Automatic annotation (TrEMBL):
UniProt xrefs under InterPro entries: Lysozyme-like_dom_sf, Transglycosylase_SLT_dom_1
Keywords (A to Z) from UniProt: Membrane, Transmembrane, Transmembrane helix
Organism in which the protein naturally occurs: Paraclostridium bifermentans ATCC 638 = DSM 14991
Transglycosylase SLT domain sequence ranges: 40-146
CDD domains: LT_Slt70-like (cd16896)
Transmembrane helix is among the record's keywords: yes
Transmembrane segments: 6-23
Protein's recorded name: Lysozyme-like family protein
């Protein structure tokens, strides 16, 4: 065989190897970034106009999809709903008594709360920061030149937990969008 043919065969072989690696990488990423509780996420993300990929990203970071998770601050379930947010949602949504560990209930309240935060902040980073650090804190930071130069965006987050949380959720959000596509009808940013 001549040199050109060897090079052609080598290039084809390398392309096949790269294709297999790419497919395997995507499969591994999908295993690490599942879409659990899909029926509830789809239903309530649509009802409250929230991107499904954001909901999955928050569940992954908050609870690693453990429906019985309880944080050191006593937030509960898949989306780590605090007692005060649960009570607020029960009143606003007229839910009555609920089991916050029930995946459907937890996802419904989490999506409702995200929609409230979007109405308040209309900015993905601020919504994610408020989901973790509280909307009161985010509003304080926006009004403090040490954290916000323009009152609309944060250039610094004083809580390390919230800063790290924002980075983790956004990283997962990018991965979920790349694996499962954009949710154009639900896109908020």
């Amino acid at each position: 065989m001549n040199k050109k043919r060897y090079i052609t065969i080598f290039i084809i072989f390398m392309l096949l190897v790269l294709g297999v690696i790419s497919i395997r990488q995507k499969l591994v990423l999908k295993l690490l970034h599942p879409r659990l509780y899909e029926e509830y996420v789809e239903t309530y993300s649509k009802e409250f106009s929230i991107d499904e990929n954001l909901v999955y990203s928050i569940m992954k970071v908050e609870s690693k999809f453990n429906k019985n998770a309880i944080s050191n601050k006593k937030a509960k379930g898949l989306m780590q709903i605090s007692d005060i947010t649960q009570k607020w949602a029960q009143d606003e949504l007229k839910l009555g008594k609920v089991d916050i560990f029930d995946p459907e209930t937890n996802i419904k309240i989490g999506c409702w709360y995200l929609s409230k935060l979007y109405k308040e902040f209309n900015d993905l980073d601020l919504v994610i920061a408020a989901y973790n650090g509280g909307s009161g804190n985010v509003n304080k930071w926006l009004n403090d030149e040490a954290y916000s130069k323009d009152g609309n965006k944060l250039h610094k987050i004083p809580f390390n937990e919230t800063k790290n949380y924002l980075g983790k959720v956004k990283e997962n959000y990018i991965i979920y969008k790349s694996l499962y596509g954009e949710e154009e009808a639900n896109e908020k940013n």
